[in-house]
From TrEMBL, chain A:
Keywords: DNA-binding, Sigma factor, Transcription, Transcription regulation. Residues 22-88, 127-173 form the RNA polymerase sigma-70 region domain. It comes from Winogradskyella haliclonae. This is RNA polymerase sigma factor SigK. Belongs to the sigma-70 factor family. ECF subfamily.
UniProtKB/TrEMBL annotation, chain B:
This is Anti-sigma K factor RskA C-terminal domain-containing protein. Residues 92-248 form the Anti-sigma K factor RskA C-terminal domain. It comes from Winogradskyella haliclonae. The keyword Secreted does not apply. InterPro entries: Anti-sigma-K/W_factor (IPR051474), RskA_C (IPR018764). Keywords: Coiled coil, Membrane, Transmembrane, Transmembrane helix. Residues 108-149 form a coiled coil. The chain crosses the membrane at residues 85-105.
Length: 176, 262
């Protein structure tokens, strides 16, 4: 059993220290994902914390057969953020929601300067092809299905898988 | 199994994205445990995605802020205890209310019972009033009958051993009726009745006018009796219950002769 799996097990036993460690590992990611969806830092602050509270309160419902812990919490985050964008109050306050992608957020993100691999990430997104941008945006940030993507990009479903792999390969070369 | 081909297929990237079915998830999870290369691959994909998504975060939020909220939710979780108190109070209130309702119901039933009793008493009183009116009317009728112009009064005197007995007959020949005032007769003993006789004297022929079956229970002891006979005298004897064909002379208590010259 590796480090993350052990942490998750402790977290499920309501070990707040384990929870804090997992929070430090993933809170910025989750914050980023909800921010990419709602495009509002105040709302995303609140949402990100709600996601972790939800995870804490429903810790026992997670099992490794459902996928990675990160994937599980990522799912909670996407659902919470999408629910938020569908709420009446949100729609009224965000009538002209801009269509910017995660790449635009990364490029203009001043917070990123504090991260060690900021330059690498920015370089990566600048080099990223249109199809990779859409694949990563939809698969990881928005949680669209392969079928949705195949239709949007007008490529066969099997191609979605391999195309995405090559996009992620490039990312790994730069950030890892 | 060709592990390299499996990795190359891109399924693990979709696994991290959460795009696989539950069955596929279980499959990947199992393969990760069996093959360290697959496990390593998944960890690297995840790490890359974590890095990428981190880059879109507007700023870091400290865990302490969340910790407070979790503690707050714990306080919220304690709230049921206060609402427990509330629910106890609620129960207590409903018990008091129920007791109050029962008491009210009880009182209502009691009052209804009282009303019934009073209603019964009222009915009894009404009956008594009616009786009194009736008896007053009867008395008036009687008085009128006795006072009528054509009335013949026949005093019946005690006979032999019964000389303390007396009676009076008021005879209205137009009505073919006599009114017997038998106040001077004792109560009929058990198994006996008073029998009234109309008599002609020459020859002596007794004709029964009937028995007074309700003598003992009658209040004013005045009895209206039909009489179509040309009576010359009236007698009263004590006879066995049901009456007799002819008067038992030893039991002749009173006798009176009609005074034909008014």
């Amino acid at each position: 059993m590796n480090h993350i799996d052990a942490l998750v097990k402790q977290f499920q036993k309501k070990d707040i220290k384990a929870f804090e460690t997992l929070y430090k590992m993933y809170s910025n990611s989750i914050h980023g994902v909800v921010n990419t969806i709602v495009k509002d830092t105040v709302i995303s602050d609140e949402l990100m914390q709600d996601v972790f509270i939800k995870a804490w309160n429903n810790a026992e419902s997670y099992s490794s057969s459902k996928g990675r812990f990160f994937t599980w919490i990522l799912n909670i985050a996407r659902n919470a953020a999408i629910d938020k964008t569908r709420s009446k109050a949100f729609k009224q306050s965000k009538q002209n929601l801009d269509a910017s992608f995660f790449v635009d957020i990364i490029v203009s993100n001043s917070n990123l300067e504090q991260q060690t691999d900021a330059i690498g990430i920015k370089k990566f997104v600048n080099q990223l092809g249109e199809k990779c941008k859409i694949l990563i945006e939809f698969l990881y940030f928005k949680g669209y299905t392969q079928k949705d993507l195949a239709e949007t990009l007008d490529i066969p479903i099997g191609t979605v898988k391999t195309r995405n792999r090559s996009c992620i390969q490039k990312l790994r070369e730069i950030v890892l | 199994m060709d592990i390299k081909a499996y990795i190359k297929s891109g399924i693990l990237e979709l696994y991290v994205a959460g795009q696989l079915s539950e069955k596929e998830n279980q499959e990947v999870s199992q393969l990760m445990q069996q093959h360290p290369e697959i496990h390593q691959e998944v960890l690297e994909i995840e790490a890359a995605i974590v890095k990428l998504t981190e880059a879109t975060s507007p700023h870091a939020v400290k865990f302490d802020a969340l910790k407070d909220k979790i503690t707050e939710t714990k306080v919220v979780a304690l709230k049921p205890k206060t609402s427990n108190w509330l629910s106890y109070a609620g129960w207590a209130a409903s018990i008091i209310l129920a007791a109050g309702l029962l008491w009210t119901l009880n009182t209502k039933n009691q009052l209804e019972e009282d009303i019934k009793t009073v209603a019964t008493e009222k009915q009894t009183l009404e009956l008594q009033i009616e009786d009194a009116r009736h008896s007053l009317a009867k008395t008036k009728d009687l008085l009128e009958a006795i006072r009528a112009k054509d009335i013949v009064t026949v005093p019946l005197n005690g006979q032999g051993n019964f000389d303390t007995s007396y009676a009076k007959v008021y005879w209205n020949k137009n009505d073919n009726a006599i009114y017997l005032d038998a106040q001077g007769l004792p109560e009929a003993p058990k198994g006996k009745v008073w029998q009234v006789w109309s008599l002609t004297l020459n020859p002596l022929i007794p004709t029964s006018l009937g028995t007074i079956d309700d003598f003992n229970s009658d209040d004013n002891k005045i009895f209206a009796i039909a009489n179509t006979n040309e009576s010359q005298a009236f007698g009263i004897t004590l006879e066995p219950e049901g009456g007799s064909e002819t008067p038992t002379m030893e039991q002749l208590h009173t006798l009176g002769i009609v005074n034909t010259t008014p």
